[in-house]
């Protein structure tokens, strides 16, 4: 009999068990009367229903089976849930089945739970279509890029009575990803109060994704909803027991990203033209008077714009088997490979791209250290040694790897054009731009930036340095996604939205930036990122626009978000 790891099975269907303190917190918030009815969709082993039963008992109710309703796709989980509830002396109405097919006996006052999290790549076919139809029935149109939780969240509201409450554990993607814009808009349109609870530290031991507790109340099918939400940021689960004062955030549009609420910065808003601050706190009078434009009269231009104004961003090549295709010079020499078999390559990863410039000298040094600076991808007929290397790869099954087997010939890696700059994809300290002076190819561990003619005239190294400002560092934390391991990830679309100095501003300070470039590279080699940011801020004259206090507040906002992100690498506390 083969052994199947239950954790692997749960992961396949997107199920992650919820810590009891979270379930109890949500149940205590959601249930207000002893007669309340509650539904836990995707109930698993009923951690929320058990917490709900305890809460209803506190309120003097909970004796009716119809008050506690649960459904789950997995029969074994439902069976365990039933036994656990019976052991507690609790009656509940449990069903095995798909939540999107489920019919509740009556509207409920609360829906609480932890929706399954299945990424869009694995959420497809009839299941996805059914989920999309359920969301559309509530007026929410989801794209094929939406993960499972999005439709699940929207569909859950269809079971609520007027004035009902929704308490869910969701991925923090809710705040940031484009596909969740419709969900964000729907929540603010359908509830009279929306509160989010986030944690600085990781609270799920087996989950790398950051989570957020969604607490929405006052449901109505017909609105009018609310134009803002409340945000509570806590250190860990223990902090749930203590009352915390929320901040309030009003997005310009309901569907806009909600990540700016995590660190308010009027100075950042003034420099980028974005939203300034949380409510009810107002901007200082002197900050409101600062123009968003550079002081050049009728020809004024924005100080900062999106990285897409510098050029086009594209993914790197996908080899399908980096261990075979990416080679060090020593390995290529051992295999006897010829120049016709190889292309110069920025080694997989991005550690070497934190120095603003990748030139021939740096590439050679990387090669001598054993880095994989060559790509096996013959443009024409491989050399004799190249053909032997191909045969050796086939002997080990490299040609059967997914990306290899769907291209012909399998050993020729499709590559984008050589990029002008690289934009780092996974980041610990901060996102970095690096000028590709060595004119090498890149794989999908970094993005390529292809400059406009205007930007090329300024120079890639200077642009890379200009993007090292505190504004860009904060922008990366706002537009990117943070993961439980403490890393900041930027997909191409997100990287395109990075706030960078306008080309006119960079051109004005080009000589000063170029003069600072050698020193900046030395400082970065010593991991003195903060010093580089401060000097770039000074060269660009940011304090002249937002004031010293405004600039310090902007840096503090960046520090707050970056520290919060990295702290989750420590695991649950």
UniProtKB/TrEMBL annotation:
PROSITE patterns: N6_MTASE (PS00092). It holds the Pfam family N6_Mtase. One of its GO terms (biological process) is DNA restriction-modification system. Keywords: Methyltransferase, Restriction system, S-adenosyl-L-methionine, Transferase. It comes from the Bacteria. GO terms for molecular function: DNA binding; N-methyltransferase activity; site-specific DNA-methyltransferase (adenine-specific) activity. Residues 304-538 form the Type II methyltransferase M.Eco57I C-terminal domain. InterPro entries: DNA_methylase_A-5, DNA_methylase_N6_adenine_CS, M_Eco57I_C, N4_N6_ade-DNA_methylase, SAM-dependent_MTases_sf. Residues 10-212 form the DNA methylase adenine-specific domain. PANTHER family: DNA METHYLASE (MODIFICATION METHYLASE) (METHYLTRANSFERASE)-RELATED, DNA METHYLTRANSFERASE YEEA-RELATED. This is SAM-dependent methyltransferase. It comes from Actinomyces urogenitalis.
